[in-house]
Amino acid sequence: MVILRGKILQSLLILWILMQTGPLPCRCQCEEEGFYYCGIGQVNMTSDGAAKLRKLIDTLNEWTTIAIEKLIVSNSASGPFLQRIAPLTEQITFAAYRDPVFQIPEGNTIGEFDINGSGKLRSIVAGSTSHVQLLFVEDCLLDRLPPTLPKLEALQALSLTQCALTTVRLDMLAANLKLTYVDLSRNQIRQLIPVTSPPQQTSAIASLILTANRLERLDMAIFAFLPALQMLDVRSNRIVHLDATASVTYRSLERLLLSANLITTFDTRNITLLKLSTLTVDDNALTDIPTHWGTIPNLRVLGFDTNYLTRIDMSVFRSFPTLQGIYISGNRIQSIRTSSPVVLPMLELLIFEDNLITSVNLTGCDFANVTIMSFINNSLTTVPPVFQRLPKVRLSLLSNPLKCSNLASFKNRIADDRLHVSEDSDYAPCRTTSSISLGRNVTGCCNT
User: What are the tens digits of pLDDT across the range 98-109?
Assistant: First the structure.
């Protein structure tokens, strides 16, 4: 516990101590001991607390966590207190900080702050310092980015999670030139306000995490001021529309995470993504495969699992000659075909599991290097005619209502391990109306 302003507040202060010379602390100094851990109970900074810590640290010769169960300070566990404790540590973690204000004093030399606000922290006030590199805050009442953030000149990583942010001004992030990692997940963000003028210096932000907020539209043009952006994570929002209101090129973006939204409109015509290799728009509300695509020259994997798709026209993938895998499972797809010829020379995987597929026609599709095609748990009654067109393919049709008369003509494909179908066994008996012998004591499940 920490005593602040006469009130007892549940809190825990953990200090990561620099390596010192000398023997490890003895049990008389640590009330609890563990691997690189020392729990010392109460420290009273209004009397001999600082001397007690100093004496303990002087006995350490390894990086050690010192856990203070009860910290007594004259006013606050931030501000002047941090100046007193700074010579003893480089990192401080507050497991339950309950003061409404956290003050980082000017000239502070501590490099990392981890603050669990316990739902009380409302404000962070920072003085100018060139030492703070990491600032992590969780469970707080902050409703905006702290205005004094730019004073943390060396800040590299910022995490404000499970707080009360509703609007984020992106120019606030551009002000910290060494900032590379930003996590604003689990807030209530509804609006991202674009930068009002081009930053005078280039932002270094490489990762921007906005997971589990309340965004309803994603305009990709607003991140144009982040040339170093490698990952944008907007999973678990309420995004309905994704587009770009102006032409924008991302030269570094490799990961764009969009799952668990409500996307019905997906238009990337104004977007160039030079390094993006994987794009999965899973768990959204698309009823058709998007047709308005920008330039994505290195796309390897494309996925639309768990949407509301009912049909697939393979010609839409013509824009991505480097595709290696297509994943479209958990939809309501009934048919797969192509309206015009399409060549995908690098394609290896086609996964269409857990749909309602009754018809597959790949006439016009040149997928010579496809090795795996899966239609597990669909409604196919006949084996799709793919073996001549796809010479390397291994086809999986488990949990499909195949007709026995059709299945019987593919025994050689099954024997050659080119076709996998449901087989009768003690632990997984056939659920079909009949079965046939496939040879080698194998019985295939099928319908008459």
Answer: 889 999 999 999
CB 371 within 8 A of CB 348: yes
d(CA 58, CA 241) in angstroms, rounded, equals 59
Q: Distance between CA 250 and CA 296 in Å, rounded?
A: 10
Q: Which of 144, 199, 211, 143 is nearest to 171 (CA)?
A: 199
Q: Measured between alpha carbons, how far is 165 from 213 in angstroms, rounded to an integer? A: 9
Q: Write phi, then psi, for 50 (nearest 5 degrees).
A: -65, -40
- pLDDT, one tens digit per residue, over 426-436 is 888 999 999 99
Percent with pLDDT over 70 in the chain? 92
Residue type present at position 322: T
